[in-house]
From TrEMBL:
Keywords: Repeat, Signal. The lineage of its organism: Bacteria, Pseudomonadati, Acidobacteriota, Terriglobia, Terriglobales. This is NHL repeat protein. It comes from Candidatus Sulfotelmatobacter kueseliae. The keyword Repeat applies. Residues 252-334 form the SMP-30/Gluconolactonase/LRE-like region domain. Gene3D superfamilies: TolB, C-terminal domain. One of its GO terms (biological process) is protein polyubiquitination. Residues 1-32 form the signal peptide.
Length: 420
């Protein structure tokens, strides 16, 4: 025992010596840096989120050095998105019921999105978000994040709002699965009519401004309804109702959730339970279908949101994979982004997808109650960037300096000729 105590004493002495050596090796510069870092942390705004302190301006897809096709811009959630506090409260605080300011704001944020789904953008660039749990349509100024709302019991009567669509005169269509109807608002957000003929669970919608069609997906009945966008009369139905989500034949649906149009007014439908996209012409004739079930990129695990960019690429949001994928109109995979997570470009229960005329892409997530905003770089921008890169390489090889006449055109985006 005496020997053990002797060794224990030696170990204690050695630890003390090591500690003194470590302190002596800390230079005044390192001590000053630690002090500065601590002071900076103390000066940080109380309750500010880590999210808002990080520069995400270089969050792009695909990863460099590949040319960029998608760039993260911003998010919309509440006044400030505060992820759950990582630091646990002490047992005394928990016993007393104390909460940090971050925890309180995260659990009860002001004007929080709870279950955002449908997305739309009007001619002024205002972002509209349908939230069934809140019972409102949020309207975000995408520059300032200022919020206004179309509220249940104030501006209209809502049950469970899901889908949104806006026509070229800024009339707003809002689908309601609980009240089994679509409410129509004028450009001043006053109710001017409703559509209830045929619908049971209306969700995703899109307006064909040229032919004046309103397409409404009804997953409860496995059909897509086509209405006159002006007099709201039912014109025709795509699919066969009442088959309990069992039909797999081309032109039939098993839980169609969302719809989109290309420049030729062809209709694209996410056939969610069949894990595919189906395409129809403006007369309702079936054109093609593509997609298979699977958890790898290029396949689907529950496709929902769908949008088409200015170059005709088809973007599909997958709710289970939390992934946004880009395809040709024939179904060839071009690129993808996403995965489960909270950071930009990652998703949690991804639902809605929308691309506006300014090449901004919006995604809605059910679990964190959030909408993310991205920038899509077009094929023309891609070609300009590739030309700039080539000109720069040629200049370096020749050893000449760029001039106003010979310099490559300024890049408007870092992109490839096609998404990759």
């Amino acid at each position: 025992m005496t020997t053990n105590l002797k060794y224990a004493g030696l170990r204690t002495m050695m630890l003390l010596i090591c500690g003194l050596l470590c302190l002596s090796l800390m230079t005044p510069a390192s001590l000053a840096a630690d002090k500065k870092k601590k002071a900076k942390a103390e000066q940080a705004p109380k309750g500010s989120a880590l999210w808002d302190s990080i520069d995400f301006s270089k969050a792009v897809w695909p990863n460099p050095p590949a040319p960029t096709r998608i760039k993260y811009l911003n998010y919309f959630c509440c006044d400030k998105y505060v992820p759950p506090a990582s630091k646990k409260t002490s047992w005394m605080d928990r016993m007393a019921g104390a909460q940090s300011e971050q925890q309180a704001q995260a659990e009860h944020p002001l004007y929080a999105l709870w279950t955002p789904y449908g997305l739309a953008v009007d001619s002024k660039g205002t972002l509209y978000v349908a939230d069934g749990k809140v019972g409102a349509v949020f309207m975000f100024n995408t520059e300032t994040k200022d919020i206004s709302m179309i509220k249940n019991g104030v501006n209209a009567r809502f049950g469970d709002v899901m889908g949104l669509a806006i026509d070229d005169s800024d009339r707003l269509f809002v689908s309601d699965t609980k009240l089994h109807r679509i409410l129509v608002f004028d450009k001043n957000h006053k109710v001017e009519g409703s559509i209830s003929q045929g619908v049971q669970d209306p969700t995703g919608m899109v307006v064909d401004n040229e032919n004046r069609f309103l397409y409404v997906a009804d997953p409860g009945q496995d059909v897509v309804f086509v209405y006159d966008a002006d007099n709201f009369k039912l014109l025709r139905t795509l699919g066969t109702p009442g088959k309990s989500h069992t039909l797999t034949e081309p032109g039939q649906f098993a839980v169609p959730t969302n719809v989109a149009l290309d420049e030729d007014n062809n209709l694209y439908v996410t056939d969610t339970f069949n894990n595919r996209v189906e395409v129809f012409d403006a007369d309702g004739n079936f054109i093609r279908a593509w997609g298979k079930a699977g958890d790898i990129p290029g396949r689907f695990m529950r496709p929902k949101g769908i949008a088409i960019d200015v170059d005709g690429h088809v973007w599909v949001a997958d709710a289970m994979a939390d992934r946004v994928q880009c395809f040709t109109q024939e179904g060839q995979l071009l690129m993808w982004l996403g995965g489960h997570g909270e950071w930009p470009g990652y998703f949690q229960t991804l639902a809605g997808l929308y691309i506006d005329k300014n090449n901004r892409m919006f995604t809605s997530e059910q679990y964190p109650g959030r909408v993310q905003m991205f920038r899509y770089f077009t094929d023309d921008e891609a070609r300009a960037e590739l030309a700039k890169r080539k000109a720069e390489e040629d200049r370096k090889k020749s050893g000449t300096k760029p001039t106003g006449a010979s310099a490559a055109p300024p890049a408007t985006g870092s992109a490839a000729a096609k998404p990759q």
